[in-house]
Amino acid sequence: MEAFNKISIEEIPKKDMLMILQALEYTGENTKIDAFISLKNSILQQLCLLAETTEEKFLAYLQE
Question: Using an 8 Å Cβ cutoff, are 45 and 51 in contact?
């Protein structure tokens, strides 16, 4: 297996990315483990930077 430090998200469908973000938020809220919320926020911030848009607009795009 080849070692890598980063993973590309270009092949992940929109609905799967939305599900990942929602699962992280749900898990963080229900377990009270802040790391899940932090990870969700970090992923969302990076995606918004790449898309050059706001979190609200990006989440709306994923829900389309």
Answer: no
